[in-house]
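Please go through the protein record below and see whether the fold suits the sequence. Record follows.
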Amino acid sequence: MAASTLRYGRLRVVSAVAVIGFLLTSCGGSSDASDEVRVSAASSLSLAFAALGSAFEALNPGVDVVLNIGGSSLLREQILEGAPVDVYASASTDTMAPIVDGGLSDGNATVFVRGFLAIAVPAGNPAHVTGLDDFGNEELLIGLCDVVVPCGAYARQVMSRAGVEPAVDTNEPNVRSLLTKIEAGELDAGIVYMTDVRSASGGVEGIEIPDAVNVAADYPIAVIVEGPNTVGGRAFVDFVMSGVGQEILAGFGFVTP
């Protein structure tokens, strides 16, 4: 799969192929030996982890944080196939489980934030979607994430709890792809994370899902033991779990688990 690279200052963000980087000296490392930290992060974490990476780099001059952004299941498979990854942040404990169970993580994964789902519609809500019942309307264009990625599995749990059989027109590989189609008006509605609605900056509108049927998404993070920079990986995870890291995540709408 071809990779595209964006830059946030010195932070490199590589779509679906590559990966990041608290003070490396606090873990016994040095910047000249650990100048790049690779982090694979779920699509719904893209903006938050870009901010975390920039903050981490500011604390560690000379360190490059490389983000590999994609669907959690795709990122997991890359790690299982031997991709050079230092940190893996998933949108689901189930998706993380094979990494931990296979001995590829440095101990157990830690849940670092939690998110909830919301209905997303294009700005102005042209189809006049009001709630989950509309997802069973075959006259509407409805999108969900594919069932193999967390946002898709969570969405179907919500539908099951609500007693709605969704008339799905497209199953997207990750939440960013789904959100892009909703923003473009190609879909009348979809189910994404609340944080994605917030990050869209007016490109989509959100409709709350009732608490009784909503799903809490736990996001686990782990250091990959065979990664090229485990010292940097541990330092980055420490930063994510720190007060500063948690404040950054809260700024993007994530909540403490």
The helical segments are 46-59, 72-80, 93-101, 150-162, 175-183, 194-199, 230-241, 243-251. The chain has eight helices and eleven strands. Residues 1-21, 25-33 have pLDDT under 50 and may be disordered. The domain at 5-113+218-251 is CATH 3.40.190.10 (D-Maltodextrin-Binding Protein; domain 2).
